[in-house]
Structure formats: C-alpha cells, structure tokens
Amino acid sequence: KAGLVFKFTRLLCLLQAAAGILCYVGAYVFITYDDYDHFFEDVYTLIPAVIIIAVGTLLFIIGLIGCCATIRESRCGLATFVIILLLVFITEVVVVVLGYIYRAKVEDEVDHSIQKVYNGYNGTNPDAASRAIDYVQRQLRCCGIHNYSDWEDTVWFKQTKNNSVPLSCCKAALSNCTGSLTRPMDLYSEGCEALVVKKLQEIMMYVIWAALAFAAIQLLGMLCACIVLCRRSRDPAYELLITGGTYA
Predict the structure, then answer these.
(1) CB 3.0 to 4.6 Å from 38: which of 2, 64, 121, 132, for a disulfide?
(2) Is the model's pLDDT at 22 over the cut of 80?
(3) Are 98 and 203 in contact (CB under 8 A)?
(4) How far is 179 from 163, CA to CA, in rounded Å?
(5) Are 137 and 230 part of one and the same domain?
(6) Total structural domains in the chain?
(7) Domain extent at residue 201
(8) Residue 165 DSSP code
(9) Do 153 and 50 belong to one domain?
C-alpha cells in the first residue's frame, strides 16, 4: 500500500508539472494570436486557450488537494479529488471538440478578412493592422495574399505610384532590395493567406494535443486515486491503526 501511495504522490507531482505546461500552451496561443488577430475576426477562437489556462490553474490546485489527501489518507479528500478531476477531464474533452471546430473555421475566417486587411495597409503612417501585415510577411516569408502581384490591387500601391511592394516582401538575405516589381526575384513568391491559415491551424493543434495528453494523465490519476480508496476501505487492520482501535 505504501508503494502505491508513493507512486500516486509522484503522479500528483506530474499532474502539477502538467498544469504548468498547460498554462504555458494557453499563454503561447494568446501571444501568437495577438500577432495574427487582424487576419482572424472571430474572437471566440480564443475560448479553447482561455479554458486551457483555467484548467491548468485548476490542475495545480487539484494537485495540492490530492497531495494533502494522500498524505493524510483522507477518504473524503481522495473522493473529492477524483470528482474534481473527472469534471476537469470533461472540460478538456470540450476543449478538444472546440479546438477541432475552430480549426475547421480558420480558413473561412482568414479568407473573409485578409483582403480587407491588405486594402487598409498604410505604409506611410502604419497602424496596428499595417504593422501586422509587415510582421507576417517577414515572419512567414510571404508577400501578398496569393502572391506579390496582389499588392497592385491595393489602395496603398495605387497611391504610392512607385511600382513597388512593402519592404517586408523582400527576401531576408537581400540588403539592397527596394520592393520594386521590376525585380520579382528579390521578393517572396509565396502568398500569405495559405501560410497564415496553416500557422493558426498549428496553434489550435497545440491546444488539442495538450488537452488530449493531459486528459490521459488525469485518467491515470483518477484510476490511482480509486485504487487507493478501494484498498483503504478493504484493509480492516489499516482502519484500526488509523482510528486507534485494537483487535479483540
């Protein structure tokens, strides 16, 4: 029995480590989403990230409850631990479902908003959306929506009248690139829409895989807690020892 309790305690430590990783994944989603939020208007996409941060925080608290209950051999504490862990497990299943739903919606959302974002580009006095475009083009090494020629249809291109695209379209290895369309070999050839969709879908998959992985850990935790509870209730000598009784 002592060996099982020791293993269960180690599992609780793993659970608390998992809680920290879950919070990290949720924070990563928030930070990355902030760089791409102008291309994705549906703020409800952040719901899985919000839930996973809340779950991570709750898991840390649950781990403390489980440790105290295990050390004190409290049947009530262990039962509470199992019930709360079951509720969190159900929540993580919801996170996985929402993750898949929003992952499927990413392409439609980006397709709906990206044209408007590019049309609002202002390279002279860049606003947040304009800075987001420059950031994405440099970060993902892309230019335009489908390719660099898309810039010719934007208001900014027609106003500047210099037959060039933003410098963020220039390949990073080139120091003398001016963004001129007369030198297309200096520009990134791939469009940004497909890469933004891919990036956002990858972010959502991080949430899904994290939720699935830690749901498995929680199942193991519930199983171990149930075994400890069963052994405690079936061991009369142990009960007498705890209550201070003696055999007749």
Answers:
(1) 132
(2) no
(3) no
(4) 8
(5) yes
(6) 2
(7) 103-245
(8) -
(9) no
One domain, residues 47 and 113: no
Residue 223 has what pLDDT?
77
Spell out the long-range contacts of 89-92 with Cβ–Cβ below 8 A and sequence spacing 24 or more: 89/215, 89/218, 89/219, 89/222, 91/51, 91/55, 92/52, 92/55, 92/211, 92/212, 92/214, 92/215, 92/218
Q: Are residues 18 and 118 in the same domain?
A: no
Residue 245 predicted with pLDDT over 70: no
CA angle 180, 185, 191 (to 5 degrees): 85
What is the DSSP annotation of 119-136? HT--SSS--HHHHHHHHH
Mean pLDDT over 43-65 rounds to 72
122 shares a domain with 61: no
What integer is the mean pLDDT of 59-64?
Answer: 72
Do residue 65 and residue 107 come from a single domain? no
Rounded to whole angstroms, how far apart are CA atoms 189 and 149?
9
Q: Are residues 127 and 63 in the same domain?
A: no
pLDDT of the residue at 57:
78
